[in-house]
Each structure stands twice: as structure tokens, then as C-alpha cells.
Amino acid sequence: MAQRVVWSPRALTDLEEIATFIASDSPSYAKAVVRRIVNLTRSLKRFPRSGRVVPEFRESDLREVFAYSYRLIYRVREREVLIVAVLHGRRMLERKSL
């Protein structure tokens, strides 16, 4: 059964900041990155557990998928997938950001 995908305010801000940062060098690459991230969320509707468990926390409902060098962090709930954050792959996720 397909689940609804919901973006947290923090995740939306993350995506906007990433797009702005990349666009300063390459607007076309910024669009490609954003498009890839958004497309990943579409696949999560049908396959919410397809991402790996976030290694920093090892909670089965907190997962991540990658788009280029960015981590899309999400939480699987009963009827929805909550996009929690989007951050560069080298950044560690902190508990307070969830």
C-alpha cells in the first residue's frame, strides 16, 4: 500500500539551502540534485523501508537514501513517510535535529 510522504519544515529548509548553495556555481546542477531528491521521495511512497537504517541511531524506523552526495533522512510511520532532513553525506546527524 502506498504511503503519504510529508516533508518537515527543517527538511524543506535543508533542500532550499542546498539548491541555493549549488546554484551559485551551477543552476542546472542544482535543479538536477533537487529533482533527484524529490524523485527518491516518490519511490518511498511504495517502498518506505528501501533505505538503510541510519547508522548513527540504529532505529528501524529511521532510514536514509542517497542522492549524489546528500543524505535524505526519513522516518517510517504507520501511514506516512516523514522526510526529516536532507544533509551532505559527510555531516553527522544529531539527535536534536530529529
Describe the structure.
- The chain is 36% helix and 29% strand.
- It is an alpha+beta fold.
- The chain has a single domain (4-90), classed as RelE-like (YaeB-like fold), CATH 3.30.2310.
- It has a five-stranded mixed sheet.
- Helix 1 packs antiparallel against helix 2 (27-46).
- The longest helix has 20 residues, at 27-46.
- The model has no long low-confidence stretch (mean pLDDT 91).
Topology diagram in text:
Elements: E1 4-7, H1 9-23, H2 27-46, E2 52-53, E3 62-67, E4 70-76, E5 80-88
Parallel strand pairs: 1-5
Antiparallel strand pairs: 2-3, 3-4, 4-5
CATH architecture: 2-Layer Sandwich
What oligomeric state do the depicted chains represent? single chain
Helix content: 25-40%
Derived structural class: alpha+beta
Secondary-structure element series:
EHHEEEE
Measured by DSSP, the beta-strand proportion falls in 25-35%
Q: Given the structure, what is the number of helices?
A: 2
Q: Which term fits the overall shape?
A: globular
The fourth-level CATH homologous superfamily is RelE-like
State the CATH class: Alpha Beta
Q: Measure the end-to-end span.
A: 26 Å
Biggest sheet, strands in spatial order? Answer: 1-5-4-3-2
Name the average pLDDT: 91
CATH topology: YaeB-like fold
Radius of gyration: 13 Å
Domain module count: 1
Largest beta-sheet details: 5 strands, mixed
Question: Quick one: how many beta strands?
Answer: 5
Poorly predicted segments: none
